[in-house]
Design goal:
heterodimer, A: mainly beta, 6-stranded mixed β-sheet, 11 strands, 0% helix, B: mainly beta, 7-stranded mixed β-sheet, 4-stranded antiparallel β-sheet, globular
């Protein structure tokens, strides 16, 4: 089983739709979780960190479920500019020794 | 402008010919890292460095070397490249090696390497 798994998609949704991505991780000791966004042939950029209590940033909401070992990303009112690949990232060992593990990414296409 | 730079951006080489991909950051970051990205596999960490002269292996270090003699630079060295090292490479940096939750990684633009 891979350490971090994501549905590769693609998710094709119309503008204005709400879309949710899930990500599962295998290491129950994992401490830190993130969502990064990657546009085609570009470098990844941090979208949001995922806090234990869940967090929201505008149209984006991230949730963490430690018991089931998954994190989720919800995008409301999708925009064309949201089209990208969304990467789930887990740090299996917090504090020192940052060894980030990336999921394969979920591709989103928002259609007009 | 705060940034991570990589050179070259594109490289085609032949098996066995030593090469170095440079990475430099101007944000005074302590932590730097190298990843490779392959279709269906996502980004995989090759090596990382917590600070000057402190480096450690990531998940796929075989066939690569790194050094961290200065804080700003973290070159990736392929002593004898092979076709299975054909990939898209990213360098990244973050402020420190402290709690990861508060350390956004900033990525360079990527280096597309082809080994024939």
């Amino acid at each position: 089983r891979k350490e971090v798994e994501q549905d590769p998609g693609p998710f094709n949704v119309p503008e204005g739709a709400t879309v949710a991505f899930n990500c599962t991780y295998s290491n129950s000791a994992s401490q830190s979780f993130f969502w990064y966004r990657q546009d085609c042939r570009k470098e990844p950029k941090l979208l949001m960190s995922v806090y234990s209590s869940g967090n929201e940033d505008g149209r984006f909401t991230a949730q963490l479920n430690r018991a089931s070992q998954y994190i989720s990303l919800l995008i409301r009112d999708s925009k064309l500019s949201d089209s990208a690949t969304y990467l789930c990232v887990v740090n299996p060992r917090d504090n020192y020794g940052q060894n980030f593990v990336f999921g394969p990414g979920t591709r989103l296409s928002v259609l007009p | 402008e705060a940034q991570v730079t990589q050179n070259p951006r594109y490289l085609i080489t032949v098996t066995g010919k030593k090469l170095t991909v440079t990475c430099s950051q101007n944000m005074n970051h302590e932590y730097m890292s190298w990843y490779r990205q392959d279709p269906g596999l996502g980004l995989r960490q090759i090596y990382y460095s917590m600070n000057v002269e402190v480096t450690d292996k990531g998940d796929v270090p075989e066939g690569y070397k790194v050094s961290r003699k200065e804080k700003r630079n973290f070159p990736l060295i392929l002593e004898s490249p092979s076709p299975n090292q054909t990939s898209l490479y990213f360098c990244a940096s973050s402020l420190s090696g402290g709690p990861a939750l508060y350390n956004e990684q900033f990525f360079g633009p990527g280096t597309r390497l082809t080994v024939l």
